[in-house]
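Internal ticket #5521
Category: modeling
Description: The requester needs a full-assembly model to guide mutagenesis choices. All entity lines are attached below as received. Residue total reported by intake: 538.
Assigned to: D.W.
Attached entities:
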Amino acid sequence: MQLRLKTTAFILLLTLTLMSASLSEDQILLQKSKSLIFDNKWQEAVISLDKVILKYPKSSSFTEALFYKGKCLEEIGDMIGALDLYQKCFKTDKNGGLKEDSQIAIIDISYKLYSSGGKENLKNILQFLNSETDTVARYYAAFKLSYAKNKEIAKLGIPVLKEIIMEEKDNDLKNRAKIAILRIDPSIMKDVEIETKSDQKMIRFSIYSKERKTMAIDMTVPLSLADLLVNSLDEKEFDISDININGTNIKKTILEKIQEAKTGILTFETEDVIIIIQIN
Amino acid sequence: MFNEKRKKLIETLSSEQQRDLKKENTTISNNGDSISQNLSGLKKIQDYLYEIKKDIQNEARQINWEKSTSEIMQKVKIEGDSSQSTAKGFLNWFFKAPYKLGFAVVSIIAFGFIFLFLIERNGPMDEQPIIPANSVENMENTLSKNETIEYLRQSSIVLSSIANMPTNGLDNDLLKLNAKHARSLLLKKKYFSQNLNNYELANAQSVCNQVEYLLYDISQIENSTDTDSLNNVRNLIQDKKIMLKIKLVQFELTNKEV
């Protein structure tokens, strides 16, 4: 038994020694930096990554080191330093694997700086919003702009959000685009549905509280977002997941009706609430 | 003149009655009775009719038509006055009691508002979406939660595939496929990562970020010669107990009770 343990330990030690021997110094430093990042040791990781950046500017590890240092500075809170590193990474890695990640990081940090008063950073986002070649960056810029408090700025992303609804196959991404439009201005949603040739059915979801004698919830959303709306009620506003009538779960019934997508009105009444679902 | 016309009318009526009786008598004759019997019967009827005629004429004479007309007209006038006084009374009540009028107007307005409220509440559905900003945020959080669960599920498949790859004879196609999946997952995380600060997803944030770093590395490995990077990823998966952490967060996100 003891002999077997000793043998295993020897083989493991030999493997690690051989691995270390095969790695160049820049790679060893990069791997060490990644381990530090994994443990949220940002400052130590920056020191290790700086060694790669300063000593090995022509190595294959250089661009990765720039990117990971950007991540560390972001975590530390040095947004301007991080933005500078991501931009350098984007310029040196035009066709590499970190290109998209650098673009998205530039948009993220530019938006943070813009929303905290650095108006000049908006141009970084608009640069990607208008890009014809970088689809991922274009989409991400439109999503990011939808959060802008200045609705005129937020509306700049609407053409791209429409493009996502029309072109994308990923339903989550489509739903995100619809939510982004609702965030910017719900009144333009109907026109967007018509323009993008989406299913134009709407659902009105109302819950009347008998105790409070008021409408606890009264919302109208595109039918495609209805299941998301019903599920989101569980989280914050009005939990309907445990309401049963004659042994039938109301939430389940509502979700089934949403799937059927038939126009009409559906009502449920319990001791406390009246739920009205209207699909039009 | 009026009385004369009435008398003539009574006479005409009497003669018509006589004609009807004669007709009746003819019918009786046809049934085979004797003529004499018929004649005596006829005479009796005629006498009887004369008596009736006299009685009617006497009754007609006794009626004071002028007085009756005036009485009838008087009665008509009284009924008219009575209906007029009801309308007048209502108008008096309406105009001479302003506080009552005010009450009535307020009542009408109040009922109007209640009616409009009910119409508004149960009225036709708006074509435009109506949704408060916090509900949009809740929907986004729900979508992010679903995406986080899916991200962790798919990531665990990629990480498991990398961890279980044979050390010798690495499959280039499999490495490329994993790199492709890793890039797709990295992109998905960008969209929901801003919602990871949400209290419900806070516990998932750390694991999602660690998985992200591993996926960065995997997305760079497309060649079987890059065994060093591959081994580094494997070591991190094992040392940091990534698979266990993923399972725990998945369980937490999918079970409300935890």
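Resolution: model delivered.
Comment from assignee: Chain A is about 60% helix and 10% strand.
Ticket closed.
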